Sequence to fold (231 residues):
Amino acid sequence: AQTVTQSQPEMSVQEAETVTLSCTYDTSESDYYLFWYKQPPSRQMILVIRQEAYKQQNATENRFSVNFQKAAKSFSLKISDSQLGDAAMYFCAYRTRSNNNAGNMLTFGGGTRLMVKP
Amino acid sequence: EAQVTQNPRYLITVTGKKLTVTCSQNMNHEYMSWYRQDPGLGLRQIYYSMNVEVTDKGDVPEGYKVSRKEKRNFPLILESPSPNQTSLYFCASSFWGLGETQYFGPGTRLLVL
Fold:
């Protein structure tokens, strides 16, 4: 079974600065998907960015980018020019690429709470 | 507007009193799923459904039931709730297929006394 670990329960960043959230995972599969979800105080789950393991290029979405290190099984999220609205819980998630019944299930890490200081 | 809705958003109940949390999506998604979120554990899957009348257990199915009689609806049933089911619950949906992004509902906070 796959596991996802987020070793930083809490992080803080100064507004306009850059912060990196860490995520590691364990899998025996060679092809899979990785995601970062944001959960603001409203509790909604919002997709931030996704990465296909077979793609070497790191995904980027505006101020959000990832550093995907497949050999190290590491998938960190970098937030540039941090804004007050970025304050939230961030979850890293893994999904198999296998075409089986559980192929759509997301396995989540425990989350990292990000605080943004004005 | 494409969305996943859940009701109720907040619920306080007592041990043993049956309850149902509804989930509905308007995107014609085949795949629907229920997760529970607990501090430090992230989200864990309870049940999922690949299509109408097709459901299966996730990682933590004990104490829960689901049904999928219509494509758009996927209710979560707690027939005899216990305090250890106090949690935040999320419904999610997506098209069936590799790499499809899942869309989450707003969450239901349940307290079982």
